[in-house]
Amino acid sequence: LRRRNVFPTRQAKQHEANPLPAFPTTTIGSFPQTKEIRLARAKFTKGEIDAATYHDFIKKEIAFCVKEQEELKIDVLVHGEAERNDMVAYFGERLEGYIFSENGWIASKPMKGMLTGPVTCLQWSFVRDDIPRSVVCTQLALAIRDEVVDLEKAGIVHIQVDEPAIREGLPLRSVDFDFYLQWAVDAFLLSTTGVNDTTIIHTHMCYSDFQDIFQAIVRMDADVLTIENSKSDMRILSAFSTHGYNAEIGPGVFDIHSPRVPSTQEMKERADAMLKYIPSRNLWINPDCGLKTRGWKEVRESLTNMVAVAEALRAASA
């Protein structure tokens, strides 16, 4: 359940082996699920097109998404998740033990491998009740660990294991919190600790109050944590500063649930405020969450402004 070394040691190795500019930019993982993608998936599900046709379509969508990010000058790219119907169902369909109701890309920037964490797979599924949930979660973690190690072997140095549901899994009674958080965090660690120091483990958590699970987040020992921040007025970052958090962190600089495109100045002011709580070498610039529900026009405009913020921060710190 432990990485080979503590974060400061890993961070030094990561920055040497996989250098990035100051204030690196990335996104959370998903890009717009257009009507064309949804239509192709529906046709494939109904048997109206064959697997080869569908997979060729998805590869072209991924290539388009990667090209867009390169043109936007994002530092750490994602493939956009065009092939995924849902972040849990996509992986469940590929694991023995899950049942469902019926009815390599090349880029000039590093790519993140995107996985859904064991706790979220557990929370967003109907789970058998003849064995403890903690045991089911551990079984999921072992399967995900295999995938994490395979991604590393394939040359992926940024691997994101999302756990948006870790807080929602808290028991109703606070007296049960510690036991749940022990096995939940252990499952995340089991998923992610099989890699070398130079591999950068990311995780993402959606809209949450982190106060009552802060120590659990620290124990997850991720190299990069991305969180919602645009609606919190820096309350979350204040908690991270007060309690002490020494890993890298990407608090969202804009709200993806709103169609409004914030200006570069607005995002810059938010990033400047973050630097009061986060050392500059640990700050990532990214949206609050995935971009799945947004349209390409607003995505392009928002990310253009976001990259401009990172460039301004680099110029100011040079």
Automatic annotation (TrEMBL):
InterPro entries reported for this sequence: Met_Synth_C/arc, UROD/MetE-like_sf
Cofactors demanded by this protein: Zn(2+)
UniProt keyword Lipid biosynthesis, yes or no: no
Family annotation (CDD domains): CIMS_C_terminal_like (cd03311)
GO molecular function: 5-methyltetrahydropteroyltriglutamate-homocysteine S-methyltransferase activity; zinc ion binding
Keywords: Metal-binding, Methyltransferase, Transferase, Zinc
Chain segments carrying region Disordered: 1-24
KW Ribonucleoprotein (keyword) present: no
Residues in Cobalamin-independent methionine synthase MetE C-terminal/archaeal domain copies: 107-311
Gene Ontology annotations of biological process type: methionine biosynthetic process; methylation
PANTHER family the UniProt entry points to: 5-METHYLTETRAHYDROPTEROYLTRIGLUTAMATE--HOMOCYSTEINE METHYLTRANSFERASE (PTHR30519)
UniProt protein name: Methionine-synthesizing 5-methyltetrahydropteroyltriglutamate--homocysteine methyltransferase
The organism of origin for this protein: Linnemannia exigua
Gene assigned in the entry: MET6_1
